[in-house]
Design a protein that fits this description.
Blueprint: H1 2-9, E1 25-35, E2 38-47, H2 67-76, H3 81-92, H4 98-116, E3 123-138, E4 141-153, E5 159-167, H5 172-184, E6 189-194, H6 201-208
Parallel strand pairs: 3-6
Antiparallel strand pairs: 1-2, 3-4, 4-5
Helix pairs in contact: 2-4, 5-6
Length: 212
């Protein structure tokens, strides 16, 4: 919020006010806000004109929202729980327990598992099956992994992401397990499967969906 006020005034704290500038800093106001970590006392910088509208904690706001989103965002970037804890403390002065961070990320994984098991349509005219190589954190190391994804076009012509799966590398054997999972979620037939030239890929498709 200090940085926000500096942007609003056009000069940083302890710097000389620009020539012709009228507005200036005017101490702080105290505020108690609630968050997932509990209550926190914060000092909000003020300006003399009363025009400053902080964005991080807006006027009238008494709850700091989005902590879960920040944790998930940092976790998605490959940061460890300890790194996330240190980052939140450095950025916001908030001490968040490793247990809370674990609970937040575990809750996300539960939602991912529910999404991965959602029932699918019986028929998809077109399904794109492809694999991307992505960097992922594993046991403290960042390594390459294969991200499998199935993108279906339904009867109405709308695209649906049917699923995403991680594996150390791409292979027809893993694709067979992916196709089996799709079948188990209710898919009876795929008219056209768009794939690359991976050896054994067509055979894997025909094993599960022989008419594709």
């Amino acid at each position: 919020m200090e940085a926000e006020l500096s942007t609003h005034l056009g000069y940083k704290k302890h710097e000389r006010k620009p020539e012709g500038g009228i507005n200036s800093r005017n101490s702080y106001s105290q505020k108690t806000i609630q968050g997932e970590f509990g209550n926190a006392e914060i000092s909000i910088p003020r300006d003399r004109s009363g025009e400053f509208e902080p964005q991080l904690v807006r006027k009238g706001q008494n709850r700091l929202l989005g902590l879960d989103d920040k944790i998930i965002s940092l976790y998605a970037r490959g940061m460890s729980i300890r790194d996330i804890q240190a980052q939140l403390e450095e950025m916001y002065g908030v001490e968040v327990s490793p247990t809370l961070i674990s609970n937040v990320t575990d809750a996300v994984m539960d939602e991912v598992k529910q999404w991965q098991n959602l029932p699918l349509n019986a028929v998809y005219p077109i399904v794109y099956l492809d694999c991307l190589v992505v960097k992922a954190r594993d046991s403290g190391r960042v390594i390459n992994k294969s991200l499998y994804f199935a993108l279906g076009v339904n009867i109405e012509g709308h695209k649906e992401l049917l699923g995403m799966w991680i594996s150390p590398n791409e292979g027809a054997k893993f694709w067979l397990s992916v196709l089996t999972k799709i079948q188990n979620r209710g898919v009876k037939d795929i008219f056209i499967a768009c794939v690359d030239s991976l050896t054994g890929f067509p055979n894997a498709i025909e094993t599960v969906f022989p008419k594709t």
